[in-house]
Amino acid sequence: MHTVIVYESMYGNTREIAEAIAEGVHQADPEASVDCLPVARADTETTRTADLLVVGGPTHMHGMSSGASRRMAAMAEAKKEGHEDAAREAYETAEGPGLRSWFHSLPKTGHGIHAAAFDTRADMRRSGGAANGIAKRLNSHHYDVVVEPEGFIVEEGDGPLRQGEIERARAWGAALV
Ligand SMILES: Cc1cc2nc3c(=O)[nH]c(=O)nc-3n(C[C@H](O)[C@H](O)[C@H](O)COP(=O)(O)O)c2cc1C
Fold this sequence. Notes:
The chain is of the alpha/beta class. The chain has helices at residues 13-28, 44-48, 67-78, 84-95, 99-105, 130-140, 165-175; strands spanning 2-7, 33-38, 52-58, 114-121, 144-145, 150-153. The chain contains 7 helices and 6 strands; from the N terminus they run βαβαβαααβαββα.
């Protein structure tokens, strides 16, 4: 069993959730190999070998991020005093590929392979969340999306994650295998 988790993250919250999901998969199936990769490092060779593909990203403007929203995210961080390192990381991420362009290069060869979508978001009530768009794209690449898209909550626009979300992500990951 080979699980590949691909994430996009501007401020690190989605990365933390992705890593917790990886821990959950590993706890549920210690024999499984798990790759947890930022979108810039997730090439087609890695995804080609997955038996389970999990994809997640931050919610921007009620959906998946765009080039413009990622630049906005980096600029917002740069305005905050004491957030210089986070802003630098966010700018680097904004320069790299987002999930939208990653899906363009993902071969449509998912036939029957299990998949799941998640996002992080600031407010459940206001937002449809990026996970719906991710699940739609997984479906259009012929993956078999086996659970409802899931959202994990960040307390402020840039985090931290709400208390309990790491544990919830671990349990969500464990239930996938
Ligand atoms: C440009 C921008 C737009 C956002 N739009 C939404 C939104 O529509 N709904 C929401 O719940 N959160 C929104 N957020 C908050 C993000 O979801 C939050 O920054 C993200 O989950 C943090 O994940 P990350 O640390 O992995 O980047 C927005 C954030 C930014 C920077």
